[in-house]
Amino acid sequence: MTDTMRAVVLDEPGPVTSLHIRELPVPEPEAGWVRIRVEAFGLNRSELHTRLGLAGDAVTYPRVLGIEATGVIDTNPTGTFAPGQQVATMMGGMGRAYDGGYAQYTCVPVDQVIPFRSDLPWQTLGAVAEMLQTAYGSLTVGLDAQPGQSLLVRGGTSSVGMAAAVLGKRLGMTVLSTTRSPAKHDALTQIGVDHVLLDDGDVAAQVRAILPHGVDGAIELVGTPTLPDTLRAVRVHGTVCFTGMLSNVWTVKDFYPIDYLPSGVRLTAYSGEADDLPADVLQGFLDDVAAESAVVPVDRVFDLDHIRDAHTLMESGDARGKLVVLPWSRQGASTA
């Protein structure tokens, strides 16, 4: 092993050209941390927000971005995992409080490492960690979703939206997902969505044409511009979980609950951590993917040299699923 690695560094917020690939020293894990050889990492909207300067004082620079990584244990002073153990990690300050997953190696606290075993390719494994954690947490913590219920996913062709639909179907739910683009209709039906809704701003009317009393639960991934309409799509005693902000807007001006919330409709939020994703849930999902009873919605795979192209595609909103980077590859970009 060499003493240096390749990593993506953001010196200060700005356009996509603010992302720079540099040779950095391979990091050494501090007490209670492990070093992971990163085989793949997925892109996330929060990294786009950081690059655009929307993270405020939560991030110091220069910073290696990346709130997730998938790979193998390289060095583990704690002795918790054997070298070579496949692991995933996410959140916990990655790419914000300390350097994250946009690199060939990263160091993280051992308690935010999730082990697994799988023969799936890294480009598939790299798409799962944060996407599954967010979707699973939204369903379980945010909604307390139950078999037989109905679920609306607002922002359905985002990577988390597609993962939520897959998990909802595995749970036995009726899933309604939105898209603003007719061209993305088939991407949703192919993962099992029961009703694809073209988001014209009035999704609530479309939902109630199918389910007159409204859906049992909804995951809001677009943000506060669509949240009032999403709330109107939910039945009395139903729940909306605010999870994402694809619109880059996440605050409600002059919030007055009695006017804003429909009577009897609950509003929760989800922004959890790695420990919200149990190892057996991750392993079970990967086993189902290997058995072709579940799918991982990957749109495109990039090498590290094309990180700017990957961020440009993420920012455009044109991706139909997760964008994955293989930091050791020199193969350019490819569809999944």
Automatic annotation (TrEMBL):
Where in the numbering of this chain does the Enoyl reductase (ER) domain appear? 14-325
Q: Which residues cross the membrane?
A: none
Give the highest taxon in the source lineage. Bacteria
**GO molecular function of the protein, one example?**
oxidoreductase activity, acting on NAD(P)H
Keyword entries, A-Z? NADP, Oxidoreductase
One Pfam match:
ADH_zinc_N_2
Q: Which Gene3D superfamilies match?
A: Medium-chain alcohol dehydrogenases, catalytic domain, NAD(P)-binding Rossmann-like Domain
| Protein name (Swiss-Prot/TrEMBL) | NADPH:quinone reductase
